[in-house]
Specification:
- It is a single chain.
- Helices cover about 20% and strands about 25% of the residues.
- It is of the alpha+beta class.
- The protein has a domain of about 130 residues: Gcn5-related N-acetyltransferase (GNAT) (Aminopeptidase, 3-Layer(aba) Sandwich).
- Strands 1, 2, 3, 4, 5, 6, 7, 8, 9, 10, 11, 12 and 13 form a 13-stranded mixed β-sheet that branches.
- A hairpin with a 5-residue loop joins strand 3 and strand 4.
- It is globular, with a radius of gyration of 20 Å.
- It starts with 9 loop residues before the first strand and ends in a 65-residue tail after the last helix.
Length: about 350
Amino acid sequence: MTTVAAGRGIVAHPSTDRALLRGFLERDRLFAAYAVCDLDEREFGRARWAVATAGGQLVAVGMEYTGPTPQSMFVLGHNDGIAAILRDVLRPRAAYISAATPALPALAQSYRIEPGPAMVRMAVDRASFHPYPAPVERLLPVEVGELNRLYQLGFAAWLPSGAVAEGVYFGVRVAGRLVAAAGTHVISREARMGVVGNVMTHAEYRNRGLAKAVTSAVTAELLRYCDDVVLNVRSDNPPAIAAYQALGYVEHCRFEERLIRRTAPAWPSIRAPFRRFFGSRPAQDAQLTYDQAHPMTPPVDASPDPIDADPVADPPDPIADPIAPDGEPTAGPEPDRSPEEPR
Protein backbone atom coordinates (compact mmCIF):
# COMPACT_ATOMS: atom_id res chain seq x y z
CA MET A 1 0.00 0.00 0.00
CA THR A 2 1.46 3.36 -1.05
CA THR A 3 0.92 6.54 0.93
CA VAL A 4 0.78 10.08 -0.39
CA ALA A 5 2.90 12.41 1.66
CA ALA A 6 0.96 15.26 3.21
CA GLY A 7 1.72 18.68 1.82
CA ARG A 8 2.41 17.60 -1.74
CA GLY A 9 0.18 19.19 -4.34
CA ILE A 10 -1.95 16.94 -6.56
CA VAL A 11 -1.99 17.82 -10.25
CA ALA A 12 -4.19 16.10 -12.87
CA HIS A 13 -3.51 16.14 -16.60
CA PRO A 14 -4.17 14.07 -19.76
CA SER A 15 -1.75 11.26 -20.59
CA THR A 16 -0.94 9.10 -23.58
CA ASP A 17 1.96 7.30 -21.90
CA ARG A 18 0.87 3.68 -22.20
CA ALA A 19 3.86 2.36 -20.27
CA LEU A 20 3.10 4.67 -17.35
CA LEU A 21 -0.59 3.76 -17.37
CA ARG A 22 0.09 0.03 -17.70
CA GLY A 23 2.53 0.05 -14.80
CA PHE A 24 -0.14 1.55 -12.52
CA LEU A 25 -2.98 -0.70 -13.73
CA GLU A 26 -0.96 -3.91 -13.52
CA ARG A 27 -0.82 -3.53 -9.74
CA ASP A 28 -4.16 -5.30 -9.83
CA ARG A 29 -4.69 -6.50 -13.40
CA LEU A 30 -7.83 -8.50 -12.62
CA PHE A 31 -9.56 -5.52 -11.06
CA ALA A 32 -8.27 -3.23 -13.83
CA ALA A 33 -9.04 -5.75 -16.58
CA TYR A 34 -11.08 -3.52 -18.90
CA ALA A 35 -8.63 -0.65 -18.63
CA VAL A 36 -5.65 -2.98 -19.15
CA CYS A 37 -7.29 -4.27 -22.34
CA ASP A 38 -7.98 -0.71 -23.50
CA LEU A 39 -4.24 -0.07 -23.55
CA ASP A 40 -3.93 -2.23 -26.68
CA GLU A 41 -3.12 -0.28 -29.81
CA ARG A 42 -6.55 -0.88 -31.36
CA GLU A 43 -8.48 0.39 -28.32
CA PHE A 44 -6.13 3.03 -26.93
CA GLY A 45 -7.19 5.80 -29.30
CA ARG A 46 -10.86 5.26 -28.49
CA ALA A 47 -10.46 6.52 -24.94
CA ARG A 48 -9.24 9.60 -23.11
CA TRP A 49 -6.79 8.95 -20.29
CA ALA A 50 -5.80 11.14 -17.35
CA VAL A 51 -3.37 10.80 -14.47
CA ALA A 52 -2.96 12.57 -11.14
CA THR A 53 0.43 13.05 -9.53
CA ALA A 54 1.58 14.22 -6.11
CA GLY A 55 5.18 15.36 -5.82
CA GLY A 56 6.01 13.50 -9.01
CA GLN A 57 4.38 10.28 -7.77
CA LEU A 58 1.53 8.77 -9.80
CA VAL A 59 -1.47 8.46 -7.45
CA ALA A 60 -4.52 7.98 -9.70
CA VAL A 61 -5.60 7.09 -13.24
CA GLY A 62 -8.85 7.82 -15.05
CA MET A 63 -10.22 6.66 -18.40
CA GLU A 64 -13.26 7.86 -20.38
CA TYR A 65 -14.33 5.90 -23.45
CA THR A 66 -15.20 8.28 -26.29
CA GLY A 67 -18.58 8.44 -28.00
CA PRO A 68 -22.13 9.62 -27.33
CA THR A 69 -22.96 10.27 -23.69
CA PRO A 70 -23.19 8.39 -21.45
CA GLN A 71 -20.07 6.40 -22.12
CA SER A 72 -18.15 4.18 -19.74
CA MET A 73 -15.57 5.65 -17.40
CA PHE A 74 -13.16 4.15 -14.92
CA VAL A 75 -11.08 5.54 -12.09
CA LEU A 76 -8.40 3.96 -9.96
CA GLY A 77 -6.21 5.14 -7.12
CA HIS A 78 -6.07 7.76 -4.39
CA ASN A 79 -9.34 9.61 -3.76
CA ASP A 80 -7.74 13.08 -3.93
CA GLY A 81 -6.24 12.15 -7.29
CA ILE A 82 -9.56 10.79 -8.58
CA ALA A 83 -11.33 13.96 -7.49
CA ALA A 84 -8.74 16.10 -9.30
CA ILE A 85 -9.07 14.05 -12.51
CA LEU A 86 -12.86 14.38 -12.53
CA ARG A 87 -12.68 18.07 -11.65
CA ASP A 88 -10.03 19.18 -14.13
CA VAL A 89 -9.60 16.64 -16.95
CA LEU A 90 -12.37 14.08 -17.51
CA ARG A 91 -15.64 15.99 -17.26
CA PRO A 92 -18.51 14.24 -19.11
CA ARG A 93 -22.05 15.35 -18.30
CA ALA A 94 -23.00 11.72 -17.62
CA ALA A 95 -21.16 8.41 -17.61
CA TYR A 96 -21.29 4.82 -16.45
CA ILE A 97 -18.43 4.69 -14.02
CA SER A 98 -16.56 1.80 -12.47
CA ALA A 99 -14.85 2.48 -9.18
CA ALA A 100 -14.07 0.95 -5.83
CA THR A 101 -16.62 1.62 -3.10
CA PRO A 102 -14.16 3.78 -1.09
CA ALA A 103 -13.89 6.07 -4.15
CA LEU A 104 -17.57 7.09 -4.07
CA PRO A 105 -16.90 10.24 -1.96
CA ALA A 106 -14.42 11.41 -4.59
CA LEU A 107 -16.99 10.91 -7.35
CA ALA A 108 -19.63 12.74 -5.30
CA GLN A 109 -17.56 15.94 -5.37
CA SER A 110 -18.48 16.42 -9.03
CA TYR A 111 -21.32 13.95 -9.76
CA ARG A 112 -24.65 12.72 -8.51
CA ILE A 113 -24.37 8.97 -8.16
CA GLU A 114 -27.35 6.78 -9.00
CA PRO A 115 -28.02 3.89 -6.59
CA GLY A 116 -27.21 0.30 -7.50
CA PRO A 117 -25.97 -3.01 -6.10
CA ALA A 118 -22.29 -3.76 -5.74
CA MET A 119 -20.68 -5.71 -8.56
CA VAL A 120 -18.50 -8.80 -8.27
CA ARG A 121 -15.44 -9.25 -10.46
CA MET A 122 -14.85 -12.95 -11.06
CA ALA A 123 -11.83 -14.51 -12.74
CA VAL A 124 -10.69 -17.86 -14.07
CA ASP A 125 -7.45 -19.24 -15.48
CA ARG A 126 -6.41 -22.54 -17.07
CA ALA A 127 -5.76 -24.17 -13.71
CA SER A 128 -9.16 -23.36 -12.20
CA PHE A 129 -11.39 -23.70 -15.30
CA HIS A 130 -13.99 -26.49 -15.29
CA PRO A 131 -15.48 -26.77 -18.81
CA TYR A 132 -19.13 -27.61 -19.33
CA PRO A 133 -19.27 -29.71 -22.53
CA ALA A 134 -22.35 -29.15 -24.66
CA PRO A 135 -23.29 -28.88 -28.37
CA VAL A 136 -22.51 -25.23 -29.14
CA GLU A 137 -21.30 -23.47 -32.28
CA ARG A 138 -18.98 -20.54 -32.98
CA LEU A 139 -21.00 -17.59 -34.30
CA LEU A 140 -19.82 -15.72 -37.40
CA PRO A 141 -20.10 -12.00 -38.27
CA VAL A 142 -22.79 -12.80 -40.88
CA GLU A 143 -24.96 -14.13 -38.05
CA VAL A 144 -24.99 -10.82 -36.17
CA GLY A 145 -28.61 -10.23 -37.22
CA GLU A 146 -29.75 -13.34 -35.38
CA LEU A 147 -27.60 -12.42 -32.41
CA ASN A 148 -29.13 -8.95 -32.19
CA ARG A 149 -32.64 -10.36 -32.44
CA LEU A 150 -31.84 -12.53 -29.43
CA TYR A 151 -30.29 -9.65 -27.49
CA GLN A 152 -33.24 -7.35 -28.21
CA LEU A 153 -35.26 -9.54 -25.89
CA GLY A 154 -33.45 -8.05 -22.95
CA PHE A 155 -30.43 -5.89 -23.84
CA ALA A 156 -30.65 -2.19 -24.56
CA ALA A 157 -27.84 -2.48 -27.09
CA TRP A 158 -26.96 -3.37 -30.65
CA LEU A 159 -23.86 -5.16 -31.91
CA PRO A 160 -22.20 -4.49 -35.29
CA SER A 161 -20.74 -7.40 -37.22
CA GLY A 162 -17.26 -6.14 -36.33
CA ALA A 163 -17.88 -6.92 -32.68
CA VAL A 164 -18.43 -10.58 -33.57
CA ALA A 165 -15.47 -10.65 -35.96
CA GLU A 166 -13.08 -9.16 -33.39
CA GLY A 167 -14.52 -11.03 -30.42
CA VAL A 168 -15.49 -14.58 -29.50
CA TYR A 169 -19.17 -15.57 -29.66
CA PHE A 170 -20.78 -18.98 -29.23
CA GLY A 171 -24.42 -19.93 -29.47
CA VAL A 172 -26.91 -22.77 -29.19
CA ARG A 173 -29.59 -23.43 -31.80
CA VAL A 174 -32.84 -25.34 -31.46
CA ALA A 175 -34.50 -26.30 -34.76
CA GLY A 176 -32.19 -23.81 -36.50
CA ARG A 177 -33.14 -20.95 -34.18
CA LEU A 178 -30.53 -19.16 -32.07
CA VAL A 179 -31.80 -19.42 -28.48
CA ALA A 180 -28.69 -18.76 -26.36
CA ALA A 181 -25.41 -16.92 -26.83
CA ALA A 182 -22.40 -15.56 -24.99
CA GLY A 183 -19.54 -13.40 -26.15
CA THR A 184 -16.82 -10.98 -25.17
CA HIS A 185 -16.56 -7.31 -24.28
CA VAL A 186 -12.89 -6.86 -25.01
CA ILE A 187 -9.80 -9.01 -25.59
CA SER A 188 -6.16 -8.01 -25.23
CA ARG A 189 -3.54 -10.11 -26.98
CA GLU A 190 -0.83 -7.89 -25.50
CA ALA A 191 -1.98 -8.37 -21.90
CA ARG A 192 -3.29 -11.90 -22.57
CA MET A 193 -6.60 -10.97 -20.99
CA GLY A 194 -10.25 -11.48 -22.02
CA VAL A 195 -13.57 -10.21 -20.66
CA VAL A 196 -16.68 -12.39 -21.05
CA GLY A 197 -20.17 -10.91 -21.38
CA ASN A 198 -23.29 -10.62 -23.51
CA VAL A 199 -24.71 -13.84 -22.08
CA MET A 200 -28.34 -14.33 -23.10
CA THR A 201 -30.87 -17.16 -23.21
CA HIS A 202 -34.32 -16.91 -24.76
CA ALA A 203 -37.01 -16.99 -22.05
CA GLU A 204 -38.52 -20.17 -23.51
CA TYR A 205 -35.24 -22.07 -23.13
CA ARG A 206 -33.96 -20.99 -19.73
CA ASN A 207 -33.13 -23.30 -16.85
CA ARG A 208 -31.57 -25.86 -19.21
CA GLY A 209 -27.91 -24.97 -18.69
CA LEU A 210 -27.61 -23.27 -22.09
CA ALA A 211 -26.10 -20.07 -20.71
CA LYS A 212 -23.53 -22.07 -18.80
CA ALA A 213 -22.72 -24.01 -21.98
CA VAL A 214 -22.08 -20.94 -24.14
CA THR A 215 -20.17 -19.16 -21.36
CA SER A 216 -17.99 -22.25 -20.98
CA ALA A 217 -17.29 -22.31 -24.72
CA VAL A 218 -16.28 -18.64 -24.83
CA THR A 219 -14.08 -19.07 -21.76
CA ALA A 220 -12.38 -22.15 -23.19
CA GLU A 221 -11.57 -20.35 -26.44
CA LEU A 222 -10.16 -17.31 -24.62
CA LEU A 223 -7.97 -19.46 -22.39
CA ARG A 224 -6.20 -20.79 -25.49
CA TYR A 225 -4.28 -17.48 -25.66
CA CYS A 226 -5.26 -15.54 -22.50
CA ASP A 227 -3.76 -16.08 -19.06
CA ASP A 228 -6.76 -14.51 -17.31
CA VAL A 229 -10.45 -14.31 -18.17
CA VAL A 230 -12.83 -12.16 -16.13
CA LEU A 231 -16.51 -11.23 -15.98
CA ASN A 232 -18.83 -9.14 -13.82
CA VAL A 233 -21.95 -10.22 -11.96
CA ARG A 234 -24.27 -8.39 -9.59
CA SER A 235 -23.66 -9.14 -5.94
CA ASP A 236 -27.43 -9.59 -5.41
CA ASN A 237 -27.54 -12.47 -7.89
CA PRO A 238 -26.34 -15.58 -6.02
CA PRO A 239 -27.59 -18.01 -8.72
CA ALA A 240 -25.42 -16.30 -11.34
CA ILE A 241 -22.43 -16.33 -9.04
CA ALA A 242 -22.95 -20.02 -8.35
CA ALA A 243 -23.21 -20.77 -12.08
CA TYR A 244 -19.88 -19.08 -12.79
CA GLN A 245 -18.28 -20.75 -9.80
CA ALA A 246 -19.28 -24.09 -11.31
CA LEU A 247 -17.12 -23.17 -14.32
CA GLY A 248 -14.18 -22.39 -12.04
CA TYR A 249 -14.59 -18.62 -11.75
CA VAL A 250 -13.68 -17.23 -8.34
CA GLU A 251 -14.52 -13.88 -6.78
CA HIS A 252 -11.64 -11.42 -7.04
CA CYS A 253 -13.22 -8.27 -5.62
CA ARG A 254 -16.39 -6.20 -5.25
CA PHE A 255 -16.80 -2.73 -6.67
CA GLU A 256 -19.32 -0.16 -7.94
CA GLU A 257 -20.69 0.36 -11.43
CA ARG A 258 -22.97 3.36 -11.41
CA LEU A 259 -24.60 5.92 -13.65
CA ILE A 260 -23.32 9.36 -12.63
CA ARG A 261 -24.55 12.83 -13.66
CA ARG A 262 -22.44 15.93 -13.32
CA THR A 263 -23.43 18.44 -10.65
CA ALA A 264 -20.34 20.67 -10.85
CA PRO A 265 -20.13 23.32 -13.62
CA ALA A 266 -19.78 21.84 -17.11
CA TRP A 267 -16.60 23.84 -17.68
CA PRO A 268 -13.58 24.31 -15.43
CA SER A 269 -13.89 27.29 -13.11
CA ILE A 270 -11.58 30.26 -13.41
CA ARG A 271 -9.61 28.81 -10.52
CA ALA A 272 -8.86 25.56 -12.35
CA PRO A 273 -5.64 26.82 -14.04
CA PHE A 274 -4.34 27.92 -10.63
CA ARG A 275 -5.25 24.55 -9.12
CA ARG A 276 -3.35 22.81 -11.88
CA PHE A 277 -0.35 25.08 -11.34
CA PHE A 278 -0.19 25.00 -7.55
CA GLY A 279 -1.93 21.67 -7.01
CA SER A 280 -4.38 20.68 -4.31
CA ARG A 281 -3.36 19.21 -0.98
CA PRO A 282 -4.22 15.59 -0.22
CA ALA A 283 -5.54 14.56 3.13
CA GLN A 284 -2.76 13.90 5.65
CA ASP A 285 -1.36 10.39 5.50
CA ALA A 286 -4.06 9.42 2.99
CA GLN A 287 -3.45 5.93 1.67
CA LEU A 288 -3.63 4.79 -1.91
CA THR A 289 -6.22 2.11 -2.51
CA TYR A 290 -5.86 0.59 -5.95
CA ASP A 291 -9.48 0.22 -6.79
CA GLN A 292 -10.81 -0.07 -10.24
CA ALA A 293 -13.68 -1.10 -12.31
CA HIS A 294 -14.56 -0.58 -15.87
CA PRO A 295 -17.33 -0.10 -18.33
CA MET A 296 -20.78 -0.93 -17.24
CA THR A 297 -24.34 -1.35 -18.30
CA PRO A 298 -27.20 0.95 -17.61
CA PRO A 299 -29.70 -0.12 -14.96
CA VAL A 300 -32.47 -1.06 -17.38
CA ASP A 301 -34.75 -3.97 -16.60
CA ALA A 302 -36.16 -5.14 -19.87
CA SER A 303 -37.16 -8.49 -18.49
CA PRO A 304 -38.66 -9.75 -15.25
CA ASP A 305 -35.79 -12.20 -14.99
CA PRO A 306 -32.25 -11.17 -14.08
CA ILE A 307 -29.81 -10.87 -16.94
CA ASP A 308 -26.25 -11.49 -17.82
CA ALA A 309 -23.47 -10.10 -15.76
CA ASP A 310 -21.81 -7.74 -18.17
CA PRO A 311 -22.56 -5.13 -20.82
CA VAL A 312 -23.56 -5.87 -24.40
CA ALA A 313 -22.96 -3.01 -26.74
CA ASP A 314 -20.33 -0.40 -26.21
CA PRO A 315 -22.37 2.40 -24.71
CA PRO A 316 -22.13 1.80 -21.00
CA ASP A 317 -19.52 -1.05 -20.47
CA PRO A 318 -20.20 -3.95 -17.97
CA ILE A 319 -23.14 -4.54 -15.73
CA ALA A 320 -24.35 -7.55 -13.90
CA ASP A 321 -25.16 -10.86 -15.25
CA PRO A 322 -28.44 -11.69 -13.69
CA ILE A 323 -29.32 -15.30 -13.87
CA ALA A 324 -32.41 -17.42 -13.67
CA PRO A 325 -33.31 -19.11 -10.37
CA ASP A 326 -31.45 -22.26 -11.34
CA GLY A 327 -28.24 -20.34 -11.84
CA GLU A 328 -28.44 -19.74 -15.58
CA PRO A 329 -27.84 -16.24 -16.95
CA THR A 330 -31.01 -14.87 -18.49
CA ALA A 331 -32.05 -11.62 -20.03
CA GLY A 332 -31.56 -8.03 -19.17
CA PRO A 333 -29.97 -4.78 -20.32
CA GLU A 334 -26.36 -4.54 -21.09
CA PRO A 335 -24.36 -2.43 -23.49
CA ASP A 336 -20.99 -3.71 -24.65
CA ARG A 337 -17.81 -2.56 -26.24
CA SER A 338 -18.16 -2.58 -29.99
CA PRO A 339 -16.21 -0.40 -32.40
CA GLU A 340 -19.15 1.51 -33.87
CA GLU A 341 -21.09 1.92 -30.65
CA PRO A 342 -20.77 3.91 -27.46
CA ARG A 343 -20.10 1.83 -24.47
